[in-house]
C-alpha cells in the first residue's frame, strides 16, 4: 500500500536528508521517498540519533507474524541507510559482558570509592 505523498513536503524532506548524507548522497532512498514518505519523514527526523538505528532495525526485521515485508528496492534503501548511519558512530557501541564491564574496578565503584578519592 503506497502512502499519499501530498501530506508530506517531499522537497523539504529530501533537502534535509541530502544535507545529512553529505558525501554519501548517492544512497538517497528514492524508493522510500516514492512509496513510503511517512518512513522518509521519520528517517529525516531521527537522523543522527540512536533511535534511528532502532527504527531501521525494526523496519528490516519484523517480529510480527504474517508481515509481507518491503519490496526489494525499499529494503535495499533501508539497508544502505542503516549501514551508513551505523558507520558514522551516532550510536554508542554496545557494551558486552556484565553490567560492571565498563568500570575499572567494580568493587571500589560499588562501595563509592574511585581512583583519586580516599
Structural features, described:
With 118 residues, the chain is an all-alpha fold. The protein has helices spanning 10-21, 30-35, 37-46, 50-60, 72-87, 106-110. α1 packs across α3 and α4 (50-60) runs antiparallel to α5. The longest helix has 16 residues, at 72-87. The chain is globular, with a radius of gyration of 20 Å. The N and C termini lie far apart (64 Å). The relative contact order is 0.12. The model has no long low-confidence stretch (mean pLDDT 82).
Secondary-structure map with pairings?
Blueprint: H1 10-21, H2 30-35, H3 37-46, H4 50-60, H5 72-87, H6 106-110
Helix pairs in contact: 1-3, 4-5
Summary tags:
118 residues, mainly alpha, 6 helices
